[in-house]
């Protein structure tokens, strides 16, 4: 899914930087180049440096370099010419940004490397910002694709380095979060998150749009807070256990939390 989503983004980025002697590459989480864009005029230079599809640019293979260092430190980096570890790589300037999957794990890196000897550090910073923005777009679309039935909430974010997104089901239960959102809201860093009412996470009350919907959402929230314990949820709602079971059946709430698996 990552490659399918990223391919048109790589095309767009290459359209902006390709004429300035740059290659645009996508790697997996191990630093293997899985997709690349470059002009024929620059092909020999990048081939000489070994920056080609299928090559390993992890720190273990190449020492300090844009791709490997980005993945090792899990942050945006600029490695300018002689900052590279290997002498054969000092002709390049590399600007990289990490890409995270919908489960918060590192999925790969987006790399823009330049073959121009006269490329300035100021221009590198401009390209690095473009790479970070593209990586964020890839991460955002990957997250949307992972939760096709959920409502996606985008939190305000001034940084171009991370996407703050929450996936919320029809009952306003948060069922997914990007890595940036996990950090901001104190959720587990990777993997499936424990379902939590959006109102609890965002610090506001949910606004019902109808009595039945509000009743159903209230029961889902109570059951979520009680980790599926119907007796505890019933006490929190001020009703009997049998009453709660009848209302759950009437509103189509099945075995809890099995209903969440469909989102």
CATH level 3 topology of the largest domain: Beta-Lactamase
Could you give the order of the helices and strands?
HEEHHHEEEHEEEHEHHHH
Tell me about the biggest sheet? 5 strands, antiparallel
The backbone outline, from C-alpha atoms, is: elongated
* Count of separate DSSP helical elements: 10
Number of strands: 9
Classified in CATH, the superfamily of the largest domain is GAF domain
Q: So, CATH architecture of the largest domain?
A: 2-Layer Sandwich
Oligomer: single chain
Task: Report the radius of gyration as a whole number of Å.
Answer: 23 Å
Structural class: alpha+beta
Task: List unreliable stretches of 5+ residues.
Answer: 205-209, 258-263
Mean pLDDT: 85
How much strand? 15-25%
Level of helix content? Answer: 40-55%
Main-sheet strand order equals 2-1-5-4-3
- Assign the CATH class of the largest domain: Alpha Beta
Total domain modules: 2
Terminal Cα separation, in Å? 18 Å
Task: Map the helices and strands.
Layout: H1 2-17, E1 22-28, E2 33-37, H2 43-49, H3 59-62, H4 66-73, E3 77-80, E4 93-100, E5 106-114, H5 121-146, E6 151-154, E7 165-168, E8 173-177, H6 179-185, E9 196-197, H7 198-202, H8 211-225, H9 230-237, H10 241-250
Antiparallel strand pairs: 1-2, 1-5, 3-4, 4-5, 6-7, 7-8, 8-9
């Amino acid at each position: 899914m990552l490659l399918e989503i990223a391919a048109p983004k790589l095309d767009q980025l290459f359209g902006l930087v390709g004429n300035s002697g740059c290659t645009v590459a996508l790697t997996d989480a191990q630093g293997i180049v899985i997709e690349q864009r470059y002009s024929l005029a620059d092909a020999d230079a990048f081939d000489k440096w070994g920056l080609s599809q299928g090559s390993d640019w992890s720190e273990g293979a190449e020492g300090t370099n844009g791709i490997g260092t980005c993945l090792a430190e899990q942050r945006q980096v600029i490695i300018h010419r002689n900052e590279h570890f290997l002498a054969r790589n000092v002709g390049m300037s590399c600007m990289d940004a990490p890409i995270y999957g919908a489960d918060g794990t590192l999925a790969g890196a987006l790399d823009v490397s330049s073959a121009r000897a006269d490329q300035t550090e100021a221009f590198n910073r401009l390209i690095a910002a473009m790479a970070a923005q593209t990586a964020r777009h890839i991460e955002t679309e990957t997250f949307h694709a992972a939760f096709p039935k959920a409502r996606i909430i985008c939190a305000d974010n001034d940084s171009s380095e991370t996407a703050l997104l929450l996936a919320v089901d029809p009952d306003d239960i948060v069922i997914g979060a990007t890595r940036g959102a996990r950090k901001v809201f104190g959720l587990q860093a990777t993997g499936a998150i424990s379902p939590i009412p959006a109102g609890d996470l965002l610090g506001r009350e949910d606004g019902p749009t109808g009595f039945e919907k509000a009743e159903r959402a209230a029961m889902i929230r109570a059951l979520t807070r009680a980790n599926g314990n119907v007796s505890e949820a019933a006490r929190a709602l001020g009703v009997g256990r049998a009453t709660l079971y009848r209302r759950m059946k009437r509103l189509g709430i099945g075995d809890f939390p099995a209903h969440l698996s469909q989102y």
